[in-house]
Amino acid sequence: MRINRWRRNSHNKPKSSKKNVNPEIDDSLKSLVNQMKKSNDFIHYKNQQSPNPFYINYFMSLVDTEILHRDILPYLNREAITSLEKVQVEVPIENIEITSDLKKIENQLLNGSIMIQLDGNTDKVALIRAEMKKAREVSVPEVEFSVVGPKEAFVESIDTNLNLVRKRLPIPELQFEEFKVGKLSKTKVMVLYIEGIVNKENVNTVTQRIQDIEIDTINDSSYIVQLITDNQNSPFPQLIDTERPDRIASVLAEGKVAILVDGAPHGVLGPTTFVEFFSAFEDYFLNWITASFFRVIRLFAVMFSILITPLYVAVLTYHYELIPKDLVSILVISRREIPLPPILEAIFLELAIELLREAGARLPTKVGQTIGIVGGIVIGTASVEAGLTSNVLLIIVALATLASFTTPVYKMGNTIRLLRFPFLFFAHLWGLLGVALCFCYVLAHLLRLTSLGRPFLEPIYPPRITDLKDAFIRLPLSFQSKRPVALQTEDTMKFSKKKSKEKQEIDE
Fold it and tell me: Which of 86, 108, 129 is the last residue of a domain?
């Protein structure tokens, strides 16, 4: 009826909006609505309460119905809505968009918008934002907990995370670039940097790699990390994950780039260096002497965790002469009834520790803690009494495991756990020479690694003397007046070192 009437009166050239009806758009919009109506959570109904009836379309699972019934329907039913432009005027919601772009209509509906279509006008629709926002409250950091300092952590809502960063850096130079990644998930990914400080090459590298991603879904920021890292076959993480907004604000001020992903409670930082994975952000809240002492302990603990068990296997297998005389008797007594060679003894204990750690991580919190403590005591005691392992090796493996927990970044801790096993096999094959060969191989691999095109082992190689002030030790903040040389920032100075040393004298 409507199409026939339009054809019959076409020679009169009516001034109504029906003259713009495009049958192709009409059919495409109908097919889009029919496609979405297959889902039970899609609402499509004709509102008869208004003087001029109109159609309302939305996904019930994405739209906040309180906004619909409080801020939209009362104003649409109050007066006759004769045009979509009047919808923009009457409804007290910002950014009401009128469009006929089917791709935009589809995207907006799937992102929580309400589509208003006037009866008889199928050329254009009005899109009103009314998305449902559900997210947990900002909580205390769990992975990067600190005794002193801020107690805020990222959540799964990217809008909340951006707010946490923006309120720490209330400057217009802080820029956000948005991308949609994932053919199915359409996940929102934000790239953060400070204009005028950051090296644009780093920003271009990150944005180009994100734009080149081809994948169905992005469920977490870890997907982005795996897809944009320089060497995806390396066990070493080349970008830092953090759940602390204060850490992201701090490194942005240094000239780095941050990535936030909608649905992920962690941000990604880059480019980064090897020594940064052993620097806890709490170091900057402590006195520089204390912070440097803890940082050196962490580095020593990492080397101890990787090398102590392979050294035990190498010495007992090939190099008895290296054992001090006072220690020989203890080792002989502890291994007198052990039927296994040192390599099998060490692998048995290492795998037992890894099994306990995985079981504790996968089980509920209270049960996991019980399994970790009780299982460690029972298995350790039983293995020694059964004569499968020596008590000396049990102490060594326990200390190595404890030392691996000192790594502030969780992913680097996993890498350290993994590295112990190739070192063990090399130690069994060639003794101390095998340990040295494995160490050289790992060092050569680290020398070749890059993070967003920047040297991963900086400031060790290439040597950067000025960057050593915040590497193995942390010098006082007054000494760190320049940004890291490796980042090649546009603005190299943080503050004037001369003015920071000036002391105001109080007139008496």
Answer: 129
Q: How many structural domains does the chain have?
A: 3
> Closest Cα to residue 46, out of 139, 147, 115, 105?
115
Q: What is the Cα–Cα distance from 4 to 321, expressed in whole angstroms?
A: 104
Residue with tokens 């009314």: 130
What's the CA gap between 481 and 500, in Å, rounded? 9
Helices (H), 132-177: 158-166
Q: Is 137 helix (H, G, I), strand (E, B) or coil?
A: coil
List 269's β-bridge partners, or say none. Answer: 240, 258
- DSSP, collapsed to helix, strand or coil, labels residue 131 as strand
97 and 177 fall within a common domain = no
Burial class (CB in 10 A: 0-12, 13-18, 19+), 321: exposed
**What CA dihedral angle connects 292, 294, 300 and 302, to 10 degrees?**
-120
Structure tokens, 187: 């996940």
- By DSSP bridging, strand 113-118 and strand 240-242 are unpaired
pLDDT in tens, 44-87: 888 877 677 888 999 998 898 888 888 888 888 777 777 888 88
Looking at residue 317, its amino acid is T
Q: CA-CA distance, 263 to 134, in Å (whole number)?
A: 11
Query: What pLDDT, in 10s, does the model give residues 156-183?
Result: 889 899 999 999 999 999 999 999 999 8
Q: Quote the pTM value.
A: 0.83
Range of the domain at 18: 2-129
Amino acid type, 84: L
